């Protein structure tokens, strides 16, 4: 199962349980004498939900569990469709009942045999009978396979992750008072920002590259908020680009910083003309964070309003793609490498030991060092896991994180540390996360 698919599944099962417990569904089923059936569905889904955490972890090394999850996801979609059909039919019945009071006199003139005839309802129940039987069979099959696959209910104390970075949105705000292992990079980027270009008509484009989670955004945030940098530029703007290089949106957001609004619904030409006039003669710094893909022509269109700025204007671009960095940059891209273990440990410990004393829990330090080794030098992974463990003082909880099979996950763009942070969320936050992911 794809990584994102499994994120939806646990939340989706919870949604199904809520639908089955709704008064509209229950009242409709009671009237049509299939209330017991719904109760059985609810009971089976609760049994399945109880082992989903174990299944999501075991699927990494067990293809049969992976297949079970894939089939369960298909079943969940079909059950959701069926419940929607029942909800629609329940609404139809309600509308008919509401209209009866105004048609009683007319109905009294209709022969009883005709009044009782309801071809729409008969056809509906005939169609539903086979669908209900299919759902019954598949749910029972999935329930029986729980013991065969050795799936167990996992009782793990869960907590919300307060320090996890949420993608794709980023802002210029940062809580980092010290950027671990990146002081040299910070100085180099600031020097480039303060340097005057030999060609006064040229805008300096400074790309920062590196793999996901390596700290590109954090470095850009720290530089953006540096006091010397603040005083050096007249105007600053921070734009999270993400995977959609939408020229109109990006231009409007920059205009929002400069003009105080997003220029309403004007055309791109009008917005760019306003932005060009506002930037004229000003020394500005613009950060384009998390750029995934951009064509050369799109980049030229976006930066056309920048050309009338004062000498020394700069743009910082953060991207994983070195080809994008080379195409956009006017200087050699600044490539970030993985942090050494001690720097990663400092980040992890800063978050993990906020509420836990290493003196009273000496074994946690050694376990923590082993966890940090698995972070692969990625500061985001270290910070995320530190946030996950900061309210978990028990040694067994730390060992569970260290020994989980999620570290063995292959073929996914999702960092194991980020997957772990999702894995330990409570069900209602998993549901919220899944909902946000499809917006």
Automatic annotation (TrEMBL):
Coiled coil: none annotated. InterPro entries: Apaf_helical, NB-ARC, P-loop_NTPase, Rx_N. One of its GO terms (biological process) is defense response. It holds the Pfam family NB-ARC. It comes from the Eukaryota. Keywords: ATP-binding, Leucine-rich repeat, Nucleotide-binding, Plant defense, Repeat. SUPFAM superfamilies: P-loop containing nucleoside triphosphate hydrolases (SSF52540). GO terms for molecular function: ADP binding; ATP binding. This is Disease resistance RPP13-like protein. It comes from Actinidia chinensis var. chinensis.
